[in-house]
Amino acid sequence: MLLLGTTYLVRVAAVNAVGQSDWLMGSVTTLATTATAPKNLVSSNVTGTGLSLGWGLPDSNGGAGITDYRVEVTSNGSNEWTVIPHAPSNSLGFNVTNLLAGRTYLFRVAAVTSVGVGAYSNTITVTTTGAVGPIAPASLVVSNVKTATASLSWSGVIATQKVSNYVVDVSTDGSTWVSVSKRV
Questions:
Q1: Which residues touch 66 (CB under 8 Å, ≥6 apart)?
Q2: Sign of the CA dihedral with 48 first, then 76, 107, and 111 last
């Protein structure tokens, strides 16, 4: 069986009852393909804002050297994967930074060769440490508008800890904001 992406020298000679001819020499290079999936993706050193990923070599590089690993992330139940930008490296690990505390992320990795991006590893789910801040209030309703006052209301928020205050700011230009009240 020939290896992928490998150059082989070949020679052919004719043989009959009288003997063998001289050799005809040549070469053939088998085609390379994308790499198989990196093995056993795992996480470690999980903090509120980062973590470390590690994985094993793919069973096959497809016949071309691995020049990088494509590390992708998704969160919030989305099926849209985002590539985490980094300097190319064929290292079997990667430190992820700039994550949000208390959030759940999914990660996957694929080997990159001159042929392209290979198959993706297993997907792992990791939740960063720390409490989750509340999400933004929704459904703002303005009522009882007078010459110098108005009433505001909004729907409650979901949070892992009880909301202690709401901050209300006003602006006339969208750049400069002034806090007008807090409401419990």
A1: 35, 57, 58, 90, 111, 112, 113
A2: negative
